[in-house]
Amino acid sequence: MLAYLVRRVIGAVILLFIVTAVTFSIFFLVPKLGGATADDLASRYVGKSVGKEQIHQTAERLGFTDPLYVQYGRFVKGLVVGSDYNYGPTTEHCPAPCFGYSFLTQTPVWPDLVARIPVTASLAGGAAFIWLITGVGTGIVSALKRGSVLDRSLMSVALAGVSLPIFFTGLLSLSIFSYGLGWTQQGGTNPLDETNPIWWAYDLILPWVTLAFLYAAAYARLTRAGMLETMNEDFVRTARAKGLTERDVVLRHGLRAALTPILTIFGLDLGLLLGGAILTETTFSLPGLGQYAVIALQANDLPKVLGVTLIAAFFIVVANLVVDLLYAVVDPRVRIS
Amino acid sequence: MTTTEPTPAVQKSSEVLLSVDGLVKHFPIRKGVLQRQVGAVQAVDGLTFDVTQGETLSLVGESGCGKTTTGRLLTRLLEPTAGTIVFEGRDISHLREGQMRPLRRDVQMIFQDPYGSLNPRHTVGKIVGAPFRLQNVKTEHGVKRAVQELLELVGLSPEHYNRYPHEFSGGQRQRIGIARTLALRPKLIVADEPVSALDVSIQAQVVNLLEDLQEEFDLTYVMIAHDLSVVRHVSDRVAVMYLGKIVELADRVDLYENPMHPYTTALLSAVPVPDTKRKGKQERIRLQGDVPSPINPPPACRFHTRCWKAQDICKTVEPPLIQLAPGHQTACHFPENATPEQEATATAAAKA
Amino acid sequence: MTEETQDSVPEPQRIERGEAFLDVRDLKVAFPTDDGVVKSVDGISFQLERGKTLGIVGESGSGKSVTSLSIMGLHPPGVAQISGQIFLDGQDLVASTREEVRLLRGKRMAMIFQDPLSAMHPYYTVGAQIIEAYRVHNQVSKQVARKHAIEMLDRVGIPQPDRRVDAYPHQFSGGMRQRAMIAMALSCDPDLLIADEPTTALDVTVQAQILDLIRDLQREFNSAVIIITHDLGVVAELADDIQVMYAGRAVEYSTAEDIFDRPQHPYTWGLLGSMPRIDRERTERLIPIKGTPPSLINVPKGCAFNPRCNYAHLNGGASETDRPELLDTGNGHMVACHLSPQNRRQAWENDIKPKL
């Protein structure tokens, strides 16, 4: 088991390394392939008013003329020990972990990310809680009442939930509950601290429910399919043959086995969302990582885009790792072999 | 026990079709951070036997004895770890996929599960005709005609050509599988539990069909089975396997009437018999426990942990598979039903 | 329908025998499907006393497993249409509520299944599953239940039961798993044990051990046992009485000795002729039953076996039109067949017996 753990962690680290390399290459090769020279890149940081000579010097100082692998090495070094950006007028220090330095806003990327992670985490965590409860619950009920009117109506709602995009359901709910009824504010959020957990939750209810609706629908369908399968397993028949109550048969025996694949997908979904729920955050004007990515993309601010991509990749890889380890906890067959 | 039945004429033609020598297949087990090999499942561990043209040789044994792995080695679905397989004088042990291709016409396999081995999306015509297409065989009157002839041969109707596997019962599906196997007129058929998934009444139909086909096309069968009653019915010779090794190999009559290895004796006496007079009698040999794991098989004689005759030598010296009677090989230090000379031979062989 | 009226007349000798511990009367189980109604069990009756073993023999689709699941009340509600009566110690299970039957399951009647690997929950230890079975029907602490579980494992011959109790099913061998299943089934000391193909998934030497175990435990617990199997050898080992089923009906019912030594139904003959026998001289050829088992949606008219029967032509067309009832031919040997006693004796003496 320990060997398995060590192997998985090493694998995750290697994977993250590869992800940074690939992402970095893409972000710095793409402009180049588009015909932009190192000077063009540098000019974006110092402005076009300065002379060509000065731009070229800036490009050299920032290392844009170096081969890609040197630039990548510098980036990784920055991640580990921090780095200095000397772009002419001043030298900017970017402490570790340095995810890059935005010359457009003249700020290092990392503090921005740190400020936005709690917002995204609040959104993702709350929504996950809601969709897990409602989605799995709906799926169980649907499976047990297979073919009934209830099953069919629940599954129709679930189909709608899977098909309708966030910007539709989000804007619809905003227009009804915020603009129409005035129950919630029209966007933004309070940070979570001891004084205002209620306000924190209250402001997030609408985005939570909107986001959870999408996922709950998918989870309901998944749970239903899983339950239909496990309820036909021999061990469920054995549980009934023992004389267990139907409740115990369904929850302790049927659901227990059906939950494993759901757990896997849940981990990955949560990991993905922690990297930024772009549509939800944009729709509800939440200052999270997703919104940050959108702003950075629109401004063509490559260091920020790179930073947010890496942090998203990090969450996904970690979620993947956690899921695999949890699998071993849940399924004794994985644990022992 | 007197032999009332004449010894079957194994030596119809003593031409050896398939010859196996020292066949070994180990599946590595990897563990730890570096995935080092820490052991191996010793599925097949040193088999030596010949199969002569036109005979039926059965491999019997309990789960984990390696009979299925052996079947897959013989058809080269697996590559042996060591040892040689010689088919018609040609060493096929390590042939590559491309080199095996012409050989696949001559060596065919029938599988246990008539449900799993047929593609549910293909019609019977397509399934049975596939070997012709794969091997680019020209048929005299076209593939369809050839397939319909095959279907008739195995007792199906030619009209079944355009139907799908799910429309058939288990026995009919096994017939489809047999028709496909026969398409290219193979010389050797390895049949892995061909009737064990079928109902009793259907089992008999398929057994009879296999026997008829053998007669008609001079087929050679290697039959892999666990049902000793069926094995006795179909086989000319029987090899009893235990944990990757052959413990006894003999003519059918010899083996069933005069078993020499204690494991064979135990196996035979464990078969439930549809005869109430034997009910509850304690004359039977009851082996204790289960078959040990092939990952860590017991040393020397692998059967010693369950054998009631085991002595110290069984735990230290592996008994060689030697001929104790004509055509009757046994690997045991203390053979059952043996004459004093045979016992002496066994002892001498162990010392050698 | 004439068949209906025939069925509703209870067989007279059944009532005279009085109410047995398990008394199944005219049980019918049907499953409506899109293709039609599948009549899995179409009117069977039998009795079983404590300490006795009934073997139910038949091929796939004969209704033998459906019968056992009906007794246990394990068919999902709304899926199966069940009629008739199943008296367990005088209580009619068909007329009881689901909750009443649930309280009997595991406590008074228990079941073991064919494949012990899939029949045990892979995520719970063997001990936890036995403890659960015990605690449903007994108000005891977990410690007491655990002690009981260890005792049960020891009783069914699992070595080091105090350690194995915490192992998971996949860590057991096939034989050990089936022993653990038996321990679980017997944990509440049931009066009726149903074993559905208990040894089909096991190796032959392990099968022999399990059959011995079932026989020993039955003696010890004095329970009634129903053993369901396709293997005539297995019933010969265990059963006192045997019911041979074909297409949802009983075609022959008698003592094990009668069934094996003096079988009367052509289907039973067919089964015996189909199987190669290790205890007899080897025959050159097996005698299969021609054709295939019928679809339970379109059961052949008259005797369901008539399209596969070699003697149907001797009955002057009755085989194709009238369904034969299960009738006593003497000494409680019951057969559902139109053959006249002379024809039957002749066929058995001349055609069948010499070839077995």
Span of the ends, CA to CA of chain A: 9 Å
- Beta strand count of chain A: 4
* CATH architecture classification name of chain C: 3-Layer(aba) Sandwich
CATH-assigned fold name of chain C: Rossmann fold
Name the CATH class of the largest domain in chain A: Mainly Alpha
CATH topology of the largest domain in chain A: MetI-like fold
How much helical structure, as a percent, in the residues of chain A? over 70%
CATH-defined architecture of the largest domain in chain A: Orthogonal Bundle
Family (chain C): Belongs to the ABC transporter superfamily.
Domain ABC transporter (chain C): 24-272
Subcellular location (chain C): Cell membrane
Protein name (chain C): Peptide/nickel transport system ATP-binding protein
Describe the structure in your own words.
- The complex is a heterotrimer of chains A (337), B (352) and C (356).
- Chain A is mainly alpha-helical and 337 residues long.
- Chain A has 2 domains: 2-98, no CATH class; 110-336, MetI-like (MetI-like fold).
- Chain A contains 14 helices and 4 strands.
- In chain A, the strands form 2 sheets. Chain A has a two-stranded antiparallel ribbon. Chain A has a two-stranded antiparallel ribbon with strand order 3-4.
- In chain A, helix 2 (38-46) packs across helix 3 and helix 5 runs antiparallel to helix 6 (149-163).
- The longest helix of chain A has 36 residues, at 109-144.
- Chain A is globular.
- Chain B has 352 residues and is an alpha/beta fold.
- Among the domains of chain B are: 115-185, no CATH class; 255-274 and 281-351, no CATH class.
- Chain B is 30% helix and 23% strand.
- Chain B has 11 helices and 12 strands.
- Chain B has helices at 67-74, 97-100, 124-134, 142-153, 170-182, 200-217, 228-234, 252-257, 262-270, 312-316, 340-351, and strands spanning 16-31, 36-52, 56-60, 82-87, 90-91, 107-110, 188-192, 220-225, 237-242, 245-251, 322-325, 328-330.
- In chain B, strands 6-7-8-3-9-10-12-11 form an 8-stranded mixed beta sheet, with helices on both faces. Chain B has a 4-stranded antiparallel beta sheet with strand order 2-1-4-5.
- In chain B, strand 1 (16-31) and strand 2 form a beta hairpin.
- The longest helix of chain B is centred in the middle third of the chain and has 18 residues, at 200-217.
- Chain B is globular and about 65 Å long.
- The model of chain B is unreliable at 6-12 (pLDDT under 50).
- The radius of gyration of chain C is 21 Å and the shape is globular.
- In chain C, 37% of the residues lie in helices and 20% in strands.
- The longest helix of chain C is centred in the middle third of the chain and has 18 residues, at 204-221.
- Chain C has an 8-stranded mixed beta sheet, sandwiched between helices. A 4-stranded antiparallel beta sheet of chain C has the order 2-1-4-5, covered by helices on one side.
- Chain C has 356 residues and is of the alpha/beta class.
- Chain C has a single domain, classed as Rossmann fold (3-Layer(aba) Sandwich).
- The chains are: A mainly alpha (337), B alpha/beta (352), C alpha/beta (356).
- The interface between B and C is large, with 45 and 50 residues.
